[in-house]
Design goal:
Elements: H1 2-34, H2 44-67, H3 70-97
Helix pairs in contact: 1-2, 1-3, 2-3
Protein name: ABC-type polysaccharide/polyol phosphate export permease
Organism: Bacillus capparidis
Transmembrane segments: 12-34, 46-64, 76-97
Length: 99
């Protein structure tokens, strides 16, 4: 019984990390556009999803294959959507405003 609770807690923690990664990046991207909190990281929030979202999606995918739970599926979807956001943003910005 103790081992099962330990596995469930570990599963829950990794699923939470898989969900926290995209939401932390979303906060940085929103701050990048609004400038609410002045940070000196310039364009880094638009590049960070390319490095961190595959990690979050991989964590979610591993847990989903093993446990078939909803938080890991939410983590996968959020990470994949956020991974493609900078690409779509650049395509739309270039087509509307030019180079």
């Amino acid at each position: 019984m103790r081992d099962r609770k330990h596995v469930e807690r570990k599963n829950s923690m990794i699923s939470t990390i898989s969900i926290i990664i995209p939401f932390a990046l979303i906060l940085l991207i929103v701050n990048f556009f609004t400038g609410f909190i002045p940070l000196k990281i310039q364009g880094l929030p638009m590049i960070m999803p390319f490095y961190f979202c595959p990690i979050g999606a991989l964590l979610g995918f591993i847990l989903y294959r093993k446990y078939k739970d909803k938080p890991s599926l939410v983590g996968i979807v959020c990470n994949i959507v956020l991974y493609f956001f900078p690409i779509l943003f650049n395509i739309i910005a270039v087509s509307l405003y030019g180079v």
